[in-house]
Design brief:
Layout lengths: L5 E6 L13 E6 L2 E5 L5 H7 L9 E3 L5 H4 L2 H10 L6 E5 L3 H8 L11 E5 L2 E5 L3 E7 L7 E7 L3 E3 L1 H7 L5 H7 L4 E3 L2 E3 L1 H4 E3 L3 E6 L8 H5 L4 E5 L9 H7 L5 H10 L5 E4 L10 H10 L3 E3 L5 E3 L1
Parallel strand pairs: 3-4, 4-5, 5-6, 14-15, 15-16, 16-17
Antiparallel strand pairs: 1-2, 1-18, 2-3, 7-8, 8-9, 9-14, 10-13, 11-12
The structure holds zinc ion (ZN) (2 copies).
Length: about 300
Amino acid sequence: MTSKIKLVFLGTSAQIPTARRNHPATLLTYEGENILVDCGEGTQRQFRKARLNPCKVTRILITHRHGDHVFGLPGLISTFDVSGYNKILYIYGPKGIKRFLESFLGLDYVKRSFEIKIEEVSGRFFEADDFYLEAEKMEHGIPTNAYAFVKKGQRRIDREKLKKSKLPSGPLLKKLKEGKDIVYEGKKYLAKNLTYSEGDKKISFMLDTLVNKNIVPFVKNSDLLICESSFLADSENGEKLAKEHMHLTAKQAGEIAKKSKSKKLILTHISQRYDKDIKNLLAEAKKVFKNSSVAEDFDSVGV
Ligand SMILES: [Zn+2]
Ligand SMILES: [Zn+2]
């Protein structure tokens, strides 16, 4: 069985939260990792409402230091502190995030029961056996990162073919999975005939940004592209306002998904203007990229 990557949208609003949408936060769960992307105000309550334990968070990826993306951090960290959080908390962000968070979280003078490590990242910044994390610079007036989680493709045994081969289970199969040919009872079995390669799985997080040259190469071939969509191009001054505020329109999000050959687009960072009436946003994205949807708080999706 393939391990699933699960995403839960804990907050899907833009700058101002609404009754329906909390400030931005998305949780990605894979094996023992619980990676939180952004942590807007009230994120820890959103965990509770979603019946998830916030103390399971292993890493926090901050896109940029605007309040809607970070105001939930002090509260969340304070909860970790009184709940016996007993691992190192890794927080990653763009250039300048270390100094900002040290002051914002009072790291110099507040003693905590666990260690917080803050890293300013770009490129591939974390690698485990079966996945890695990447960051790329965006354009939003202040240092801003987009992120990607990539689960590495693995060689898997073709169970049907294995059955026919009558090979016994055990260490021989491990060798096949490593791509090595084996010999059993004098007969040679080629790894390429009994295994198949499972492709990478990529989830990209494209929060606040202007359209820029880094986007499409960075999110290329995403299985899931989570993209901000603060404005509607087809509205009065929509494109102009998006540019002025350094954000994307739903149309641009659709274009990014199409150009990057992504498989699925989910729009988030929804302005209060479109809070209840998302049909125009969705229609605009869908016009360019069919497999689009708009995230609601507490939506969850598997990849
Ligand atoms: Zn924002
Ligand atoms: Zn912002």
